[in-house]
Design a protein that fits this description.
The protein has 95 residues and is mainly alpha-helical. It has two helices and two strands, in the order αββα. Helix 1 crosses helix 2.
Length: 95
């Protein structure tokens, strides 16, 4: 392989890797948001509650939504990871 081919190959591989690494957080945020909305909708159907009702916990200057401080948070993470993996696999297959 010549020097020019090596440089071209390195550049292409570098940009592909950087693009994948940069897209990860964006895909995670989008998938996490979708998973939270789906979980809220699912919990609304099961518990017959309002979808947007949340409760806040305040301690000093810190605050957190109690909705995301329970086992539901694990459900959101699982949904977001599986959605992100599906999106990445779908995009990789489209190449």
């Amino acid at each position: 392989m010549s020097t020019l081919q090596s440089a071209l190959c390195f550049t292409i591989v570098f940009f592909v890797i950087v693009s994948c690494v940069a897209a990860g957080p964006i895909l995670y945020i989008q998938a996490d948001s979708s998973a939270r909305l789906f979980a809220l909708y699912k919990n609304n159907l099961i518990n017959n509650k309002e979808v947007m009702s949340t409760d806040s916990i305040h301690y000093g200057s810190a605050s957190a939504d109690s909705l995301y401080c329970s086992a539901e948070r694990l459900q959101y993470i699982v949904y977001s990871v599986t959605d992100a993996v599906r999106i990445v696999v779908r995009e990789v297959k489209s190449f």
